Amino acid sequence: MTDTVRVNGFLQEGAQPDRLVREIESSIQSTYRRFFGKHWRLRYTWFSLPPGQSFVAGEPSRTSTVQVAVPDGTDDEVRHAFMREVCDIWMARTGCSENEIVLSVPDSSYAKRFMASNIDRIDPRRRAVTALRMARHLLWSRLRRGIAVMSINLSRAG
Amino acid sequence: MPLYTISTPAPLTAQTRERLARAVVDIHCGLTAAPPTFVNVMFSHGLPIRRHLQAHMLANVRKGRSASTNSELREQMAQSLSEILAIESAAVEVAMLEVPARWVMEGGVVLPEPGEEADSKWGGEVAPHPDQYQPAAAAGE
Predict the structure, then answer these.
(1) Residue A16 carries which DSSP code?
(2) What is the predicted ipTM?
(3) Which of A65, A87, A105 sits opposite B40 (nearest CB)?
């Protein structure tokens, strides 16, 4: 039996080639299975940030933000070792500094609440259509580019 | 962390985004004394946010602050959004999610709990105590 974990990330638009993102996905997948069991499959969704749409300390940012949920109640020692490895993978593959990656490794139940909060801001009457639209963008991207990525701006998500 | 995501129906100008990003830093650091170095703000547009809203902010902040501090954070963020975007306060919503600091790695280290920044290896400079903090606007910027 396979269990699925959602991984959500925000990438600076054009900063990472698709091939590199696929390599990172594969490396994190292997690391996740080593830490939490071979039955886990990671499902990635990436959102690209156009220039001028992310800031840190009030200045334009080059930071990537990634959230990888882990089983509820994961021990801190295990969680922190996993976080260290994922950050190391990210920095080794992308060449970014440790200040350019924010990694969140929450319990799965928190990740679900985070997703619910994101959905909650959407007009209830347009949630289904929006979800379909996003799924279409992500599927098309997966088929065409090998990664599920869309703009953080839905109006130009394609 | 914190990570503030601001969603609007239409794109904001670059100037407005910069103004908002700085206001978020000023408010967050002014109320919490957290280091400004790691205050992240992202903007998105085009998402059909709820009909009565013209701006939505999702705030991901470290868990461990008092309910009154978080309430004040939400209020001041909403007020700032309303003022800078020149929209009614009823058209703004600020939602907040608290995440345990030990679940986040930034600057190569696991985040310290709120108030324990000075004792950690966290790379950012610790902001002055809220009573001493001088926002950029007040400093004449």
Answers:
(1) S
(2) 0.92
(3) A65
